[in-house]
Amino acid sequence: MSEISRRRPWLAVVLALLIPGLGHAYLRRWGRALGWYVGITATLVLLVPDAAIDQLLAREPPPLADVLPALIVGAGSVVDAYVIAVRNNREYERRMRARSTGGGAGAREDDRSPDGTREDDRSPDGTREDDRSPAGPAVGADEPGNAGDPAAVLECPHCGRETDPDIDFCHWCTEPFDAGAGTAE
Asked: Is this structure's pTM higher than 0.70?
């Protein structure tokens, strides 16, 4: 899952109550959605007697023992959708905290800069430790057009990440830059 957004657990539960797997589709967990849908369909076909399904369609209550397997699978889908939604929201909050604090110890691979380092792996002058020579900052950092040149770095106004000023969109969030948008660091 590349991009996480906040989800409503109650909506995932309601959708899972309507059709097992639909709550997972809302959460964009496509494999689980298909799995729960196949699970309820297989349960109805293999474990629930045809007479019980006919009674349900005729709006007559069938014996509870006949429909219990389908109720158990449906309840499992509802509980799983709720748990997945809550976990998704926790991960979203964790990533937002990590982004607002500049990475930190909880940063993941997708929080890394294009050169593969996190913000906390850099020195105060913005260079990686292995790029610095013993004599000082990175070699060629003062030459225009190099990565060390502050004018060659553009901050995306949408996601706040550093991006290439030679293109007219952010390669992280794919949002286009407006004329004059983006701030040089």
From this structure: no
